[in-house]
Amino acid sequence: MKILFLGDVMGRAGRQAIAARLPQMRTDWDLDFVVVNGENATAGMGLSGAHAKGLFEAGADCVTLGDHAFDQKDMLQVCEAEPRIVRPLNFSKASPGKGARLFTARGGKKVIVAQALGQVFMKRPFDDPFSALETVFRAHPLGGQADAIIVDFHCEATSEKMAMGHWCDGRASLMVGTHTHVPTSDAMILPKGCAYLSDAGMCGDYNSVIGMQRDEPLRRFITGMPKDRFTPALGEATLSGVYVETDASGKATRIEMVRQGGLLQQSGP
Fold this sequence. Notes:
Layout: E1 2-6, E2 8-9, H1 11-28, E3 33-37, H2 49-58, E4 62-64, H3 75-81, E5 85-86, E6 100-104, E7 110-117, H4 129-139, E8 148-154, H5 158-168, E9 174-178, E10 188-189, E11 195-197, E12 202-203, H6 215-223, E13 239-246, E14 252-260
Parallel strand pairs: 1-3, 2-12, 3-4, 4-5, 7-8, 8-9, 9-11
Antiparallel strand pairs: 1-13, 6-7, 10-11, 13-14
Protein backbone atom coordinates (compact mmCIF):
# COMPACT_ATOMS: atom_id res chain seq x y z
CA MET A 1 0.00 0.00 0.00
CA LYS A 2 1.00 3.62 -0.57
CA ILE A 3 0.16 5.74 2.47
CA LEU A 4 0.50 9.48 3.09
CA PHE A 5 0.31 11.05 6.54
CA LEU A 6 0.23 14.86 6.82
CA GLY A 7 0.98 16.64 10.09
CA ASP A 8 -1.01 19.19 12.06
CA VAL A 9 -2.97 21.50 9.75
CA MET A 10 -2.46 25.01 11.08
CA GLY A 11 -5.21 27.57 10.40
CA ARG A 12 -6.28 28.98 7.06
CA ALA A 13 -2.82 28.73 5.47
CA GLY A 14 -2.69 25.01 6.18
CA ARG A 15 -6.23 24.40 4.96
CA GLN A 16 -5.53 26.28 1.73
CA ALA A 17 -2.34 24.31 1.12
CA ILE A 18 -4.19 21.02 1.65
CA ALA A 19 -6.92 22.06 -0.78
CA ALA A 20 -4.39 23.23 -3.38
CA ARG A 21 -1.87 20.39 -3.22
CA LEU A 22 -3.39 17.18 -1.83
CA PRO A 23 -5.64 16.28 -4.80
CA GLN A 24 -2.69 16.33 -7.21
CA MET A 25 -0.47 14.46 -4.74
CA ARG A 26 -3.05 11.66 -4.54
CA THR A 27 -2.96 11.32 -8.31
CA ASP A 28 0.76 11.78 -8.90
CA TRP A 29 1.84 9.46 -6.08
CA ASP A 30 -0.95 6.92 -6.72
CA LEU A 31 -1.92 6.96 -3.05
CA ASP A 32 -4.09 4.26 -1.49
CA PHE A 33 -4.80 5.99 1.82
CA VAL A 34 -4.33 9.49 3.26
CA VAL A 35 -4.43 10.57 6.92
CA VAL A 36 -4.40 14.25 7.92
CA ASN A 37 -4.03 15.55 11.46
CA GLY A 38 -6.53 18.42 11.62
CA GLU A 39 -6.52 19.44 15.25
CA ASN A 40 -5.30 23.02 14.65
CA ALA A 41 -7.11 23.64 11.37
CA THR A 42 -9.65 26.10 12.79
CA ALA A 43 -7.93 29.31 13.93
CA GLY A 44 -5.08 27.18 15.31
CA MET A 45 -7.29 25.71 18.04
CA GLY A 46 -9.28 22.59 17.23
CA LEU A 47 -11.30 21.61 14.17
CA SER A 48 -14.79 22.66 13.12
CA GLY A 49 -17.20 20.48 11.20
CA ALA A 50 -17.02 22.77 8.17
CA HIS A 51 -13.23 22.65 8.06
CA ALA A 52 -13.25 18.87 8.54
CA LYS A 53 -15.49 18.65 5.47
CA GLY A 54 -12.96 20.70 3.51
CA LEU A 55 -10.13 18.31 4.42
CA PHE A 56 -12.17 15.32 3.27
CA GLU A 57 -13.11 17.06 0.03
CA ALA A 58 -9.40 17.68 -0.64
CA GLY A 59 -8.65 13.96 -0.42
CA ALA A 60 -8.19 12.92 3.22
CA ASP A 61 -9.56 9.45 4.00
CA CYS A 62 -9.18 10.01 7.75
CA VAL A 63 -8.68 13.06 9.96
CA THR A 64 -7.09 12.70 13.39
CA LEU A 65 -7.39 15.20 16.23
CA GLY A 66 -5.30 15.75 19.40
CA ASP A 67 -5.31 17.54 22.75
CA HIS A 68 -7.38 20.37 21.18
CA ALA A 69 -9.91 17.84 19.89
CA PHE A 70 -12.99 19.57 21.27
CA ASP A 71 -11.92 23.22 21.39
CA GLN A 72 -14.46 23.83 18.62
CA LYS A 73 -17.71 22.90 20.33
CA ASP A 74 -19.47 21.54 17.24
CA MET A 75 -16.84 18.76 17.14
CA LEU A 76 -18.65 17.17 20.09
CA GLN A 77 -21.45 16.30 17.67
CA VAL A 78 -19.40 15.95 14.48
CA CYS A 79 -16.95 13.49 16.04
CA GLU A 80 -19.83 11.18 16.92
CA ALA A 81 -21.54 11.42 13.53
CA GLU A 82 -18.52 11.40 11.16
CA PRO A 83 -16.84 7.96 11.00
CA ARG A 84 -13.75 9.33 9.25
CA ILE A 85 -12.66 11.37 12.29
CA VAL A 86 -10.44 9.73 14.93
CA ARG A 87 -10.01 11.41 18.32
CA PRO A 88 -7.42 10.32 20.93
CA LEU A 89 -8.06 6.93 22.55
CA ASN A 90 -7.07 8.18 26.00
CA PHE A 91 -8.60 11.68 25.96
CA SER A 92 -11.52 10.88 28.25
CA LYS A 93 -13.80 7.91 28.71
CA ALA A 94 -16.74 10.29 28.22
CA SER A 95 -15.46 11.67 24.90
CA PRO A 96 -17.69 11.27 21.82
CA GLY A 97 -16.38 9.42 18.80
CA LYS A 98 -13.69 6.73 18.69
CA GLY A 99 -9.94 6.64 19.14
CA ALA A 100 -9.40 3.87 16.59
CA ARG A 101 -11.34 3.08 13.44
CA LEU A 102 -11.24 0.52 10.66
CA PHE A 103 -11.23 1.96 7.12
CA THR A 104 -11.45 0.42 3.68
CA ALA A 105 -8.73 1.75 1.41
CA ARG A 106 -8.47 1.56 -2.36
CA GLY A 107 -8.60 -2.03 -3.59
CA GLY A 108 -10.52 -3.20 -0.52
CA LYS A 109 -7.51 -3.16 1.82
CA LYS A 110 -8.34 -2.71 5.51
CA VAL A 111 -6.57 0.05 7.43
CA ILE A 112 -6.70 0.77 11.15
CA VAL A 113 -6.01 4.35 12.24
CA ALA A 114 -5.49 4.91 15.97
CA GLN A 115 -4.43 7.97 17.93
CA ALA A 116 -3.15 8.36 21.47
CA LEU A 117 -1.98 11.30 23.57
CA GLY A 118 1.35 11.27 25.38
CA GLN A 119 1.83 12.01 29.06
CA VAL A 120 5.23 13.75 29.29
CA PHE A 121 5.17 17.61 29.38
CA MET A 122 1.50 17.72 28.40
CA LYS A 123 -0.73 20.37 30.01
CA ARG A 124 -3.17 17.88 31.52
CA PRO A 125 -2.89 14.24 32.61
CA PHE A 126 -4.09 11.60 30.18
CA ASP A 127 -4.54 7.88 30.64
CA ASP A 128 -1.71 5.50 29.76
CA PRO A 129 -1.35 5.52 25.94
CA PHE A 130 0.43 2.17 25.82
CA SER A 131 -2.38 0.21 27.43
CA ALA A 132 -4.93 2.12 25.35
CA LEU A 133 -3.21 1.05 22.13
CA GLU A 134 -2.72 -2.50 23.40
CA THR A 135 -6.47 -3.10 23.09
CA VAL A 136 -6.34 -2.00 19.44
CA PHE A 137 -3.41 -4.26 18.55
CA ARG A 138 -5.02 -7.28 20.22
CA ALA A 139 -8.32 -6.76 18.44
CA HIS A 140 -6.76 -6.09 15.02
CA PRO A 141 -3.44 -7.88 14.53
CA LEU A 142 -1.30 -6.60 11.68
CA GLY A 143 -1.52 -8.84 8.64
CA GLY A 144 -4.72 -10.40 9.95
CA GLN A 145 -7.79 -8.19 10.21
CA ALA A 146 -5.68 -5.19 9.25
CA ASP A 147 -3.61 -4.83 6.08
CA ALA A 148 -2.04 -1.71 7.59
CA ILE A 149 -2.10 -0.01 11.00
CA ILE A 150 -1.29 3.68 11.41
CA VAL A 151 -0.64 5.16 14.86
CA ASP A 152 -0.68 8.95 15.37
CA PHE A 153 1.05 9.62 18.71
CA HIS A 154 0.26 13.18 19.74
CA CYS A 155 2.75 14.34 22.37
CA GLU A 156 5.66 16.62 23.27
CA ALA A 157 8.63 14.45 24.24
CA THR A 158 10.72 12.78 21.56
CA SER A 159 11.79 10.17 24.11
CA GLU A 160 8.17 9.16 24.66
CA LYS A 161 7.58 9.04 20.91
CA MET A 162 10.66 6.87 20.36
CA ALA A 163 9.58 4.52 23.14
CA MET A 164 6.16 4.23 21.52
CA GLY A 165 7.74 3.58 18.14
CA HIS A 166 9.76 0.64 19.43
CA TRP A 167 6.73 -0.66 21.33
CA CYS A 168 4.70 -0.54 18.09
CA ASP A 169 7.42 -2.25 16.04
CA GLY A 170 6.03 -5.43 14.52
CA ARG A 171 2.50 -4.40 15.46
CA ALA A 172 1.97 -1.26 13.34
CA SER A 173 2.88 -0.22 9.80
CA LEU A 174 3.55 3.40 10.79
CA MET A 175 4.05 5.17 14.11
CA VAL A 176 4.27 8.92 13.54
CA GLY A 177 4.43 11.71 16.09
CA THR A 178 2.41 14.91 15.92
CA HIS A 179 1.82 17.97 18.15
CA THR A 180 5.10 19.96 18.17
CA HIS A 181 4.64 21.42 14.63
CA VAL A 182 8.38 20.93 14.04
CA PRO A 183 9.31 18.23 11.50
CA THR A 184 12.08 15.84 12.49
CA SER A 185 14.61 14.20 10.15
CA ASP A 186 14.70 10.72 11.71
CA ALA A 187 12.44 8.79 9.32
CA MET A 188 13.37 5.10 9.49
CA ILE A 189 12.01 1.57 9.37
CA LEU A 190 12.47 -0.20 12.70
CA PRO A 191 13.80 -3.80 12.81
CA LYS A 192 10.38 -5.50 12.80
CA GLY A 193 8.93 -3.40 9.98
CA CYS A 194 7.31 -0.35 11.60
CA ALA A 195 7.95 2.94 9.78
CA TYR A 196 8.81 5.66 12.29
CA LEU A 197 9.06 9.47 12.39
CA SER A 198 9.29 11.42 15.66
CA ASP A 199 7.20 14.31 14.34
CA ALA A 200 5.49 14.93 11.02
CA GLY A 201 5.63 18.70 11.48
CA MET A 202 2.77 20.98 10.51
CA CYS A 203 0.91 21.95 7.38
CA GLY A 204 1.24 25.67 7.91
CA ASP A 205 3.34 28.80 7.45
CA TYR A 206 6.86 28.17 8.82
CA ASN A 207 7.65 31.92 8.76
CA SER A 208 6.10 31.93 12.22
CA VAL A 209 6.41 30.53 15.74
CA ILE A 210 5.04 26.98 15.32
CA GLY A 211 2.39 28.37 12.98
CA MET A 212 1.42 31.49 14.92
CA GLN A 213 2.17 35.04 13.80
CA ARG A 214 5.47 35.99 15.41
CA ASP A 215 4.75 39.21 17.34
CA GLU A 216 2.69 37.89 20.26
CA PRO A 217 4.81 34.77 20.96
CA LEU A 218 7.96 36.92 20.82
CA ARG A 219 6.42 39.48 23.21
CA ARG A 220 5.55 36.77 25.72
CA PHE A 221 9.00 35.18 25.55
CA ILE A 222 10.79 38.52 25.91
CA THR A 223 8.56 40.27 28.47
CA GLY A 224 6.67 37.42 30.09
CA MET A 225 3.46 39.39 29.54
CA PRO A 226 0.57 38.61 27.17
CA LYS A 227 -1.05 41.40 25.20
CA ASP A 228 -3.00 39.87 22.33
CA ARG A 229 -4.34 36.47 21.31
CA PHE A 230 -2.24 34.10 19.27
CA THR A 231 -3.31 34.15 15.62
CA PRO A 232 -2.20 31.74 12.87
CA ALA A 233 0.35 32.99 10.33
CA LEU A 234 -1.06 33.44 6.84
CA GLY A 235 1.94 33.10 4.53
CA GLU A 236 2.52 30.24 2.11
CA ALA A 237 2.25 26.94 3.94
CA THR A 238 4.45 23.88 3.69
CA LEU A 239 2.72 20.51 3.66
CA SER A 240 4.76 18.37 6.05
CA GLY A 241 4.38 14.67 6.64
CA VAL A 242 5.55 11.22 5.69
CA TYR A 243 5.06 8.79 2.81
CA VAL A 244 5.14 5.05 3.50
CA GLU A 245 4.87 1.92 1.38
CA THR A 246 3.91 -1.43 2.91
CA ASP A 247 4.02 -5.05 1.77
CA ALA A 248 1.33 -7.74 1.90
CA SER A 249 2.07 -8.40 5.59
CA GLY A 250 1.54 -4.75 6.52
CA LYS A 251 5.21 -4.09 7.22
CA ALA A 252 6.84 -0.94 5.88
CA THR A 253 9.21 -1.29 2.95
CA ARG A 254 9.83 2.41 2.27
CA ILE A 255 9.56 5.70 4.16
CA GLU A 256 10.15 9.22 2.86
CA MET A 257 9.69 12.58 4.57
CA VAL A 258 7.36 14.96 2.71
CA ARG A 259 7.84 18.73 2.45
CA GLN A 260 5.77 20.46 -0.23
CA GLY A 261 5.77 24.24 -0.78
CA GLY A 262 6.66 27.17 1.45
CA LEU A 263 9.98 27.56 3.25
CA LEU A 264 10.69 23.84 3.62
CA GLN A 265 10.14 22.80 -0.02
CA GLN A 266 11.58 19.34 -0.66
CA SER A 267 10.76 16.58 -3.12
CA GLY A 268 8.52 13.72 -2.00
CA PRO A 269 8.53 10.09 -3.12
